[in-house]
Amino acid sequence: QVQLVESGGGSVQSGGSLRLSCAASGYTYSTYCMAWFRQPPGKEREGVATIDSDGRASNADSVKGRFTISQDNAKKTLYLQMNSLKPEDTAMYYCAADPMIYYYCSGSWARTYGWAYWGQGTQVTVSS
How many whole angstroms separate alpha carbon 17 and alpha carbon 67? Predict the structure, then answer.
């Protein structure tokens, strides 16, 4: 059974940084796509970034230059380093994974639903 568990959320002031983690267990696929999504309060879910099992990453325009997605394959952990945080980054952040999206992983952050596995989310609050 695949489980994704996010951590690292919290409250930070505008301009600050946070690093989110997503620990995967029970995930045995050799090729996959993983992603970060977020859902601001009262708004639709939106994609943030993706990375495939070969390390190719892509970011949504809204976070380019500020957020970096990475992974530690040995630890089976996905990361999202968030710098220069803004109040509009306030949201519940979710990680997702899907082995079937590997071949079109880049840019699949635009696919906000239909992923095989989701975490429970971690809250990020940025105050001005």
Answer: 9
